[in-house]
Amino acid sequence: VPPASDGAGGPPVGMLVGIPLVVALAAAGTLIARRRRHA
Amino acid sequence: VNRRAVHPLAWWAWAIALGAAAFRTRNVLLLGLLIGVTWTVVAARRTNAPWARTFGMFLRLGLFVIVVRVAIEILFGQRLPGRVLFTTPQADLPSWAAGVTLGGEVSAEALMTAFADGLRAATLLICVGAANSLTSPYRTLRAMPALLYELGVVVTVGLAFAPQATMSAGRVRAARRLRGRTPRGIAAMRGMAVPVLEGALDNSLELAASMDSRGYGRQGALSTGRRRASHLATLAGAGLVTVGVYGVLDRGAPFVLGLPALVGGAALLLGSTAAARASAVRSRYRPDPWRTPEWWTVLSGACALGAFVMASHVGVDGLNPSYNPLTAPPLPFLPTAGTIVALLPAFVTPSVPEDES
Question: Structure pTM?
Answer without folding.
Answer: 0.85
